[in-house]
Amino acid sequence: ALWCHPCSEVVMSKSSAHAAQWLAADPAQRNAEKVFLLYSLVWIAEVAVVVGLRWYEWFSAGDYMILGAIIGLPCFILPALFACKEERAVPYWHRYAFRVNVWVLILGYIGNHFITHYFYNVLQARYTVPVGPYSINGVPMVMFLITHAYFCSYHIFATVLLRRLGLLDGKDPVRQLATVFAMAYITALLEAVTISAFPHYTYPDRYLMYTVGSAFYAIYFIVTFNVFPFMDTPTPWTLRRTAENSLACSMAVIVLMDVWRLLLGPLVGDTVAVPYAQPVTV
């Protein structure tokens, strides 16, 4: 059954003997990592062209949706087209790359639908892109699509780096946690810096956004970078386990961000309302 028995032919081996490698020892996982990493170069270039050439100035709400589809959908399509020989006979929904997409899709949807309102509330961030009818709970739908590519890249890169540093064997949890904290903050900071060139994502104080705001955003990755790299350990996960794991990570992020909201409040102003209870008009 789809939810109970993933392909038994593909067994993911993550022994400590391969801890110093960049890519996974298992050929199916290694191939998926290559596909996601190579595609990262493509979508980053696409975003750089749109922002650098200021094409967004002429974009309508429909144009943004097309851009989102161009960036997000290849994450599903490319792993199916470029499967390794070990997985070509395996149904797509039983492959590692499909589990990655399911995990990220759930995390990204909950992140945009609910967690974005913590950014509205705590960081006072706003999207000002034209949305027309393409909005869910006060969040432009294009962000749901683009987030998928961003998060696939972030989590695959985190997995590769942690493997290279020999931190996936569980033998040094303190070093693993410290490394994840650093990676999470750097990831959040780099996104904050790069997105600052896009004028339709606004916030009141750039310095606070880069410093404290990045720490707030890093909560996301402190949770997920400690979990995602262990997908399919020691054997391939079922889709049910994949979904449950992503839902659990999403809940953990919401709880931690709500603790920040209640204890520390917003970076500016004094808004403390439950963020997602009253959607913000963007």
Short account of what is shown:
With 282 residues, the protein is mostly helical. Helices cover 58% and strands 3% of the residues.
List keywords for this structure.
282 residues; mainly alpha; two-stranded antiparallel sheet; two-stranded antiparallel ribbon; 8 helices; disordered N terminus
How are the SSEs ordered, and which strands pair?
Layout: H1 27-52, H2 61-72, H3 74-81, H4 96-122, E1 126-127, E2 135-136, E3 139-140, H5 141-164, H6 173-195, E4 201-202, H7 206-224, H8 239-263
Low-confidence stretches: 1-19
Query: Quick one: biggest sheet?
Result: 2 strands, antiparallel
Mean pLDDT score: 89
In total, the number of strands is 4
- Enumerate the strands of the largest sheet in spatial order, edge to edge or round the barrel: 1-4
* Shape annotation: globular
SSE pattern, N- to C-terminal: HHHHEEEHHEHH
End-to-end C-alpha gap: 42 Å
C-alpha-based Rg, rounded: 19 Å
Helical amount:
55-70%
Question: What can you tell me about this protein's structure?
Answer:
- By secondary structure, this protein is mostly helical.
- The protein is built from 8 helices and 4 strands; from the N terminus they run ααααβββααβαα.
- A two-stranded antiparallel sheet has the order 1-4. Strands 2-3 form a two-stranded antiparallel sheet.
- A hairpin with a 2-residue loop joins strand 2 (135-136) and strand 3.
- The longest helix has 27 residues, at 96-122.
- It is globular and about 50 Å long.
- Residues 1-19 have low confidence and may be disordered.
